[in-house]
């Protein structure tokens, strides 16, 4: 195994633990926004999409790559915007939160 | 690119600078998720993650060197994606949120699959390590499965197709065989031969499995499925990250994969069910001998009342607990229900809302909808908080909810929803059940509560009925 690969596996394993740990105390009412927010985060595939598209050879590869860019952009933009809209609705609860 | 110059003068190479910026993006993702899981910081958390995303994207632009013709096409692709994503996210109704999330998840899975297909076409022409091949094939399979599964979830929630589970004899066996086919083909592709044709077949079978996997799951369980597919997409993205040797993809994808898996489990726990029960039990299918259907014979009488009667009942009550459900959201009746509640409060009636964890179509969905209608936060009571208060309530007013007040969940071990925690509406002195018709709820099972002697049915569209109730309360 190459040193890079070992590095990637290390990153993967640590990220898995962090991912579990970081949301372990989420209350039920935030399940939906959290799902939606993390949904936006996997839009990071955008980075992969532009990378393969810029390195593409031939028409088929180019258009598949462009399609991937369109889809990934929808994922990122739509994901963050829709999550923000959901969480916007929690605003009127501010005064009540202070009571807690 | 001034940041690059800055990095250069501080003795960093471009590569190192890129890696550090990716690390920064990863940290922001983690912080964002952390903030998203507490009510105080949730909205900020979303912004934090978005900033991380922006940093990662800008950083990645320094790594690519496309021809100018490609640059234009790529910019056009980004503009199309941005417009489609922003418009649909901005205009979607609050009630349609769940299917919107499904759609955004699906396109993410599709993108991951496409990226990996591109990667594979490059692998074919070069010698490559086995880990690379595994991660590429994994990302293609899981990404396309997530894409197709999300499409079905979307169609079910959007009611483009029936939300009732679609099952047939031997379904799990067939799905199992499809899965084995995928595994076998994957092994061939990873270990023995590189063939684009075989990859195309693998892609098609994975799409089929995605569809077949979601078909037998009922509409009510869709949020859990979407959450699971969300985790799948995350893992597919992580797989692409391995193949491309890109750490930010690995971190971002893995974070979503891991947290999404835990979230899926938490969601099914909130419904009092195991994940395998949700995925494989086809709850909501109207089966002939299921105990949910037994015990409610067709000729049992229900008592139905007029809005005027019920208006008087409400006006002269001391305590009223409103149980809102998805029917309220569909009828866009959250504003009228608040009007009714305000009116009752002016008369000195104590009004509270009992929010089941899965009221609406997703956990937290109902809180969002009621908050949109400016319902006061301290009136919203979570299930555990309010369940003991039902016996003190004069009226439990059930508006468009059904399964979450179905006593069969407590009393009938044969019921598909047995074990799901429910709101104790049946303990109230009077139960007003507002419903469009006698049709079973989202889970497709009958509700004995409708036949309870204490229950008065008020048939009709939730919004119209509530408007009539408002008038009746004003008049009394």
Brief synopsis:
The complex is a heterodimer of chains A (100) and B (476). By secondary structure, chain A is an all-alpha fold.
Largest interface: A-B, 85 and 114 residues
Percent strand of chain A? under 5%
SS element count, helices of chain A: 5
Q: Which sequence of strands runs across the widest sheet of chain B?
A: 3-2-1-4-5-6
- Terminal CA distance of chain A reads 53 Å
Rg measurement of chain B, Å: 26 Å
| Distance, first to last CA of chain B | 71 Å
**H/E element sequence of chain B:** HHHHHHHHHHHHEHHEHEHEHEEH
Q: Count of helical segments of chain B?
A: 18
Taking Cα atoms only, what radius of gyration of chain A do you get, to the nearest Å? 19 Å
Based on Cα principal axes, name the global outline of chain B. Answer: elongated
Low-confidence blocks of residues of chain B: 286-298
The biggest beta sheet of chain B reads: 6 strands, parallel
Quaternary form: heterodimer
Helical coverage of chain B, percent range = 55-70%
Q: What would you call the structural class of chain A?
A: mainly alpha
Question: Care to count the β-strands of chain A?
Answer: 0
Strand content of chain B: 5-15%
Which geometry of chain A do the CA atoms define? flat
Largest sheet of chain A: none
Helix content of chain A: over 70%
Please describe the structure with a list of short key phrases separated by commas or semicolons:
heterodimer, A: mainly alpha, disordered C terminus, B: 476 residues, alpha/beta, 59% helix
């Amino acid at each position: 195994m190459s040193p890079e690969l070992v590095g990637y596996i290390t990153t993967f394993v640590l990220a898995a633990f962090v991912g579990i740990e970081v949301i372990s105390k989420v209350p039920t009412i935030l399940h939906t926004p959290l799902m939606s927010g993390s949904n936006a985060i996997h839009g990071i595939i955008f980075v992969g999409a532009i990378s393969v598209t810029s390195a593409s050879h031939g028409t088929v590869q180019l258009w598949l790559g462009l399609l991937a860019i369109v889809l990934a952009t929808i994922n990122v933009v739509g994901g963050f915007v829709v999550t923000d809209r959901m969480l916007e609705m929690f605003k009127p609860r501010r005064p009540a939160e202070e009571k807690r | 690119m001034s940041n690059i110059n800055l990095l250069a003068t501080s003795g960093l190479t471009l590569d190192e600078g890129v890696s550090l910026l990716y690390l920064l993006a990863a940290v922001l993702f983690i912080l964002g998720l952390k903030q998203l899981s507490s009510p105080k910081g949730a909205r900020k958390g979303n912004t934090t993650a978005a900033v991380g995303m922006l940093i990662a994207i800008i950083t990645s632009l320094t790594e690519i060197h496309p021809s100018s013709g490609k640059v234009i096409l790529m910019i056009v692709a980004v503009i199309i994606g941005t417009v489609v994503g922003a418009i649909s996210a901005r205009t979607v109704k609050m009630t349609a949120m769940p299917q919107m999330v499904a759609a955004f998840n699906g396109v993410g899975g599709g993108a991951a699959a496409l990226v990996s297909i591109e990667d594979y076409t490059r692998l074919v022409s070069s010698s490559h390590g086995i880990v690379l091949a595994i991660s590429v094939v994994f990302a293609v399979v899981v990404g396309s499965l997530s894409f197709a599964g999300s499409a079905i979830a979307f169609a079910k929630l959007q009611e483009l197709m029936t939300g009732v589970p679609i099952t047939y004899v031997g379904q799990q066996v067939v799905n199992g065989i499809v899965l084995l086919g995928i595994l076998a083909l994957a092994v061939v592709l990873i270990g023995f031969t590189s063939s684009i044709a075989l990859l195309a077949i693998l892609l098609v079978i994975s799409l089929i499995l995605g569809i077949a996997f979601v078909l037998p799951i009922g509409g009510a369980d869709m949020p859990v499925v979407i959450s699971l597919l969300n985790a799948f997409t995350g893992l597919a993205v992580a797989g692409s990250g391995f193949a491309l040797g890109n750490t930010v993809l690995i971190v971002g994808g893995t974070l979503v994969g891991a947290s999404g898996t835990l979230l899926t489990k938490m969601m099914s726990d909130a419904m009092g069910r195991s994940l395998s029960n949700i995925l494989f039990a086809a709850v909501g299918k109207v089966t002939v001998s299921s105990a949910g259907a037994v015990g409610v014979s067709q000729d049992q009488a229900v008592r139905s009342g007029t809005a005027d009667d019920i208006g008087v009942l409400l006006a002269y009550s001391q305590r009223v607990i409103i149980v809102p459900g998805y029917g309220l959201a569909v009828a866009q009746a959250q504003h009228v229900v608040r009007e009714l509640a305000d009116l009752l409060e002016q008369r000195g009636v104590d009004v509270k809302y009992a929010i089941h964890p899965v009221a609406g179509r997703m956990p937290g969905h109902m809180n969002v909808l009621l908050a949109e209608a400016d319902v006061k936060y301290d009136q919203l009571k979570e299930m555990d908080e309010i369940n003991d208060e039902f016996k003190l309530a004069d009226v439990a007013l059930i508006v468009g909810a059904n399964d979450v007040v179905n006593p069969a969940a407590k009393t009938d071990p044969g019921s598909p929803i047995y074990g799901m925690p429910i709101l104790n509406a049946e303990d109230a002195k009077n139960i007003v059940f507002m419903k469009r018709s006698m049709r079973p709820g989202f889970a497709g099972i009958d509700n004995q509560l409708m036949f309870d002697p204490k229950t008065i049915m008020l048939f009709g569209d939730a919004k119209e009925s509530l408007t009539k109730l408002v008038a009746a309360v004003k008049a009394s």
